[in-house]
Amino acid sequence: LRGYGGQVRWLRVVYAAFEEYAGDAERLVTRPESDPDRFDYVEGFAFVNGPDPVNGWPSVPIPAGCGSRFDPDRIPPDSGPVLYCLELALHYDHRDRDNVDERIGNMLRPLRHVRGLEFAADVSYVDFLSRVNCAEEEARANGTWAAPHPWLNLLVAARDIPGFDREVFKRVLRKGIGGPMLVYPLVKSKWDPRTSVALPNSEVFYLVALLRFTRPYPEGPTAEELVAQNREIIRICRSNGYDFKLYLPHYDTQSEWAHHFGDGWPRFVERKARYDPMALLAPGQKIFPRAHAPPLGS
C-alpha cells in the first residue's frame, strides 16, 4: 500500500424534473474513460421537497460545505413532492487546485440542474471515502442504527425508471423513508459477466437503494410496516411489468430463484453441481435443497 495525498471536489446539484436528472446522469456515466471532462464519481438520490431535516431540503448540503444552506426560493413553483440531487466528485492533486474551479465550471455548465442549488466542498481523498462511515457513526449515536431498518435494493431498467419515479418516489415514498433514497444509473457492460449477479436486460439500468434509518417504535414505524412498504414497492414493479431485479433478494422456492437468474440459471446450476456436488452448502438461501445437488450438465 502507498499513501495518496490527493484532494476531492465533492459536489451536489439539485434537479426539479426527473427527466432532466436522469438524462444528465446517464450522459455522465456513459462517457468514455478517456474523456478529460469525466467525473470520477457519479451517484444521486431523491429527497422530499420540504423542510423535513432528515428527508427534505436540509439533507442536501454537503456536511463539509462550510455552512452552505439550501435556498427553497430557488425551487421552481411547479415542482412535485420529490426533488433529485446528483452527487459528483472529481479527484485532483493539490498542486492543480488553481485550475479546479475553471475545470469544474466547464463540466457543470451543460447540466440542467436548478441554478443556485449547487453545493461543493474540498475534502481529502480519505475523508471522501469515509463519508459513509461518518453517517453510520451518527446513526449509532442517535439510536437509529440499532432499530429495525429493512433496506430495499433494486436494479431497474432505464426504460422503466420514469414509471418507477412516478409510482414509487412521487406516490409511495413522497414523505421519505428516514434515510437516503438512492437512485442513479449504472452501465451493464462495465459489470463482469462471469459473476452470478442478475441484472435487468438493459445496457443502462438504475440502482434504487432505500436505506432506512428510522427511530425505534413507537417513535418510528414498526418493522412490519416497513416490510409491508417494501413488498408494496415490489408489487408495483411486478404489476407494471418493469424490467427489474432485486439485489440480494430472499426467495422461498427454487422456481423463484430460477426466474430471478433468468438466462443465467443453467450456468448457475452447472456451477453448483461442479463446485458443491454434495450440496454441503445447501440449503443456504433456499436455492438448492440439502438432499442432493443438481446433476452436472442439467
TrEMBL record:
This is Cytokinin dehydrogenase 11-like. Residues 7-288 form the Cytokinin dehydrogenase 1 FAD/cytokinin binding domain. Gene3D superfamilies: FAD-linked oxidases, C-terminal domain. GO terms for biological process: cytokinin metabolic process. InterPro entries: Cytok_DH_C_sf, Cytokinin_DH_FAD/cytokin-bd, FAD-linked_Oxase-like_C, FAD-linked_Oxidoreductases_BP. The keyword Flavoprotein applies. Belongs to the oxygen-dependent FAD-linked oxidoreductase family. The lineage of its organism: Eukaryota, Viridiplantae, Streptophyta, Embryophyta, Tracheophyta. The keyword Oxidoreductase applies. Keywords: FAD, Flavoprotein, Oxidoreductase. Its cofactor is FAD. One of its GO terms (molecular function) is flavin adenine dinucleotide binding.
